[in-house]
LD-carboxypeptidase (Micromonospora tarensis), 346 residues
Amino acid sequence: MGTLSYPPKARPGDRVAVVSPSAGLPALFPHVYELGLRRLREEFGLEPVEYPTTRATGANPRERARDLTAAFADPGITAVLATVGGDDLITVTPHLDDEVLRANPKPYFGYSDNTNMLNHLYRLGLVAYHGGSVLVHLGRPGSPHPLTFASLRAALFTSDWYELTPARQWGDRPNPWTEPDTLADEPEMLPGEGWRWQGPQRVVQGPTWGGCLEILHWLMATDRVPTVAELAGSVLIVETSNELPGAKEVFRIVRNMGERGLLAAFGAIVVGRPKAWDFDKPLSVPERRAWGEAQRDAILRAVTAYHPDAVVVFDVDFGHTDPQLIIPYGGEMRVDAVGRRIAVRY
């Protein structure tokens, strides 16, 4: 693939696009959304600009693609932030005007279903950013999480190397958006236990690729992933969603990546802390710990079969848990298994 291009950075005072390419949840949860917008203004000094589908439910893929393209085309917009994830952005990316995106590179922030957009920009040669959700993270109940906001601030405004930090406390049980009063309450947090390292003691540095594991399976099914040659020397970043895929499904997806030859392309594999609680699956804390162990074992079993020499790091705080560290997508990551440190270049 070669070296991808980092888009120019935003500065405090700039106008930034706020879009809903996956799901128009701001229409359903305006109290959460407005909190996210307020923090975008007050904490980051940025002025959000909305589009016709930002607060619309049921917008079709062409309409959402139109808004995404317009956000990149506008010379007064310096970054693009997704409000939340969803489940059908894979139907939106074919309608984007790629010439406009290439000619007007801008930092794009999103995760979960936004893996579709991150991968699309990657294939256009542009670095994007895995993480950042106006509803989930900017609209976090109680107070902003300092690790999330420090990482997002660095990713938005700086271009330097940034050391990632293991969270001392983490959570995967959000407050219900259907109850506005809970916005004042801090979410449940659990003690952090640091990152878990497997594999050889060496330093791996390279561009990242990956995202939400279930979305990567969709992208493989539609043949929209880079080739093994294009990914050679990269760092794989993967995390699982709030749909809580079981260990068997996780194993099969990673195994299928191995069968495709993708796993062998990566010198290191960085795995996000698995989310193990959802409203329709309210697991106890011991059950959540067991869920995480089963998922780690499943990934390690597949990696051992297809790429036993890879450096593997588990429980890094990015993806669907709280806090959420921002990871450059297609940008540089350094995974130091000797010093047990991870740094990214924003």
Observations:
- Residues 15-162 form a domain with the Rossmann fold fold (CATH 3.40.50.10740).
- The chain has a mean pLDDT of 97.
- The two ends are 19 Å apart (CA to CA).
